[in-house]
């Protein structure tokens, strides 16, 4: 960019603080901030009590929050701060899932965002009824082709596809771990979120002779009694006859955890509050960890780099798990395919180029 040209200013409109809990929308916003060095960004911070290190670029705007998470009060502050700072920037980039509160925000868009051009990256749709009542904020970005089709069918108009990114240097390819096999499920305590199916599938695999330890890394949501929900999963696993089960809460070091596992098991019946393409799946594939997923439309983008079973089919999922643990050559093949897929379709260069082109188009 020539020195005499002013760098564009962009507001990153997120439901949580960028230095708060690592929700998908926050992670995507942080990735955009890091990928586009020629843009001046404005972003939300929770102040002194941070969950993680804040970005070193851009202008932070303080919001009041205990933990920086997307609570109702913080969402209201984000909307009000967005209304103020939208008048001081050239472009607004929103990272908002489509849930119950989104339709009202979308109808107030002309008032709140002051007619500025808007890019709206949709991490996921948590409420299908809200999707039918919502209006597009501007140019919409989906994470997958299947989500793009849903948004176009809901009359969102101009919908682009930019898959999320994984920093390949941060998630290097790892050799297969030695010792007693570990199988990982990582997710939330959501209805049909996959934890129960993972337990049932593990029981099927165990019944077919597979021996492994199942680790469930569970993240609670605001208002949930996470300890009680974790204990319910332990009781369910015990009733299913699984001898090796470890139910954990939030994992600070996902790198170390993925280094210790052989297979990622992620069989939700529906994504609900998850991202359209969960980042944990991408991190596992980048690390060379074969993954068994439910056969949801969003996961079709992974092609033959993963194994898929019908959503809710614990028996078929368990059979695939038992087979994979018993087939080292197939394990190696899937590990290599997963890493190659991430390098080809979810790398940072492709991510940065697509968003940079979109910014140039809208700012022109």
From TrEMBL:
MF-aspect GO terms: glycosyltransferase activity
SUPFAM superfamilies: UDP-Glycosyltransferase/glycogen phosphorylase
Entry annotated with the keyword Phosphoprotein: no
Pfam family of the protein (one): Glyco_trans_1_4
Domain of life: Bacteria
Record's keyword terms, sorted: Glycosyltransferase, Transferase
Endpoints of the signal sequence: none
Keyword Transferase tagged: yes
Gene3D superfamilies in the record: Glycogen Phosphorylase B
UniProt name for this protein: D-inositol 3-phosphate glycosyltransferase
Organism ancestry: Bacteria, Bacillati, Actinomycetota, Actinomycetes, Kitasatosporales
């Amino acid at each position: 960019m020539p020195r005499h040209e002013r760098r564009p200013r962009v507001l990153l409109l997120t439901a949580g603080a960028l230095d708060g809990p690592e929700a998908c929308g926050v992670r995507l916003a942080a990735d955009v901030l890091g990928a586009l060095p020629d843009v001046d960004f404005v972003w939300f911070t929770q102040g002194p009590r941070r969950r993680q290190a804040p970005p070193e670029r851009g202008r932070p705007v303080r919001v009041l929050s205990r933990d920086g998470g997307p609570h109702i009060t913080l969402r209201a502050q984000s909307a009000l701060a967005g209304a103020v700072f939208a008048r001081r920037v050239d472009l607004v980039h929103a990272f908002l899932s489509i849930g119950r509160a989104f339709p009202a925000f979308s109808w107030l868009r002309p008032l709140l965002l002051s007619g500025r051009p808007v890019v709206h990256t949709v991490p996921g749709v948590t409420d299908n009824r809200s999707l039918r009542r919502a209006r597009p904020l501007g140019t919409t970005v989906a994470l997958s082709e299947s989500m793009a089709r849903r948004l176009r069918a809901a009359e969102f108009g101009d919908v682009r596809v930019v898959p999320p990114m994984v920093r390949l240097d941060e998630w290097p390819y790892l050799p297969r771990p030695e010792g007693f096999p570990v199988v990982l499920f990582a997710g939330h305590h959501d209805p049909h979120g996959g934890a129960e199916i993972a337990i049932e599938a593990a029981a099927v695999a165990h019944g077919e002779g597979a021996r492994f330890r199942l680790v469930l890394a569970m993240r609670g949501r605001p208002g949930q009694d996470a300890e009680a929900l974790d204990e319910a999963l332990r009781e369910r696993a015990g009733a299913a006859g699984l001898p090796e089960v470890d139910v954990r809460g939030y994992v600070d070091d996902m790198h170390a955890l993925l280094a210790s596992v052989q297979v990622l098991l992620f069989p939700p019946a529906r994504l609900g509050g998850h991202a359209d393409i969960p980042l944990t799946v991408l991190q596992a594939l980048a690390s060379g960890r074969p993954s068994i997923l439910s056969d949801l439309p969003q996961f079709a983008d992974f092609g033959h780099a993963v194994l898929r079973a019908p959503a809710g089919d614990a028996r078929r999922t368990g059979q695939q798990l038992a087979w994979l643990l018993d087939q080292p050559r197939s394990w190696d093949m899937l590990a290599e395919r997963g890493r190659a897929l991430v390098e080809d379709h979810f790398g940072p260069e492709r991510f940065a180029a697509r968003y940079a082109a979109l910014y140039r188009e809208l700012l022109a």
